Amino acid sequence: LKYFKQLKVFQGHSSAVNSVRFSPDGTKIVSSSSDKTIKIWDILSGNEMYALNGHLKRVNSAQFSPDGSMIISCSVDDTIRLWDANSGVEIRKFEGHEDCITCVQFSPDGRSIASGSNDRTIRIWDVHTGEEIKRLQGHTGQVKDVQFSPDGQKIVSASYDKTLGIWDVNSGERIHEMKDNLDYAVKAQFSPDGQYIISCSTEAIIRIWDVESGIPVKKFKHRCWINDAKFFPNGQTIVMCLKENTIRLWDVKLEMEIQKLEGHSRYITRVDVSPDGNAIASSSCDKTIRLWGLL
């Protein structure tokens, strides 16, 4: 088992930090904020490298492309923007959603992106042309999360209609509509091997679902709303952040909590795990990003 401690605090945003993601090589992190900016940070030094300016309202999410050369972001300003990760220059703007864009994700090959919106649609876009390739429709509530499967053939979505969806990327059809007394579903992510999905919702339950059947196979109950949850690269450990300002690590096989991390003074918005599984990054309404590493 790996145990973590706080290593660094990144400060520079002037408002809540809404997301944080590691670069593919694990040397940088990218953050998005309600201050309308995206920032790229050097992990070793803890210094800000670039601030990306262009969005007109709160930035909900930002992530690196699979090769680390670009960053994609989405905002309450109803736009998605593509940036050069090495210069901070905006490359392209994607427009078409009719309401706030809540989430955006690169495909594993980096050629397309998927986005979810309060307009209840999921859209797939061509990275190089900026054109909409496909529109996935079926949710009756705001779409709060989307993610490609590791092989790029499926997308999982989480919605405020209290369902999760698994979609076929090529046909655009929904393969499974997953319900299990879900409250508002806020996050859904594939396991590293693509066989399972982890989801969290406002009802304070983590669920692990079998992708093939669409049936939940495990549940972990907490006392309060869980904002985000992800598998470690080994697929056996889960990291999650709770509304009570803590980060929790769970062992999937043992079905028990193995560590609690404390340090943020306000609501933790997102967590991410480094590619090697040896670091955790967290973002918060306390305007900071925190890096956690092995004891």
TrEMBL record:
PROSITE patterns: WD_REPEATS_1 (PS00678), WD_REPEATS_2 (PS50082), WD_REPEATS_REGION (PS50294). InterPro entries: WD40/YVTN_repeat-like_dom_sf (IPR015943), WD40_PAC1 (IPR020472), WD40_repeat_CS (IPR019775), WD40_repeat_dom_sf (IPR036322), WD40_rpt (IPR001680), WSB_SOCS-box_domain (IPR051983). WD repeats lie at residues 10-51, 52-93, 94-135, 136-177, 178-219, 219-260, 261-295. Transmembrane segments: none annotated. Keywords: Repeat, Ubl conjugation pathway, WD repeat. It comes from the Eukaryota. The keyword Repeat applies. One of its GO terms (biological process) is protein polyubiquitination. This is WD-40 repeat protein.
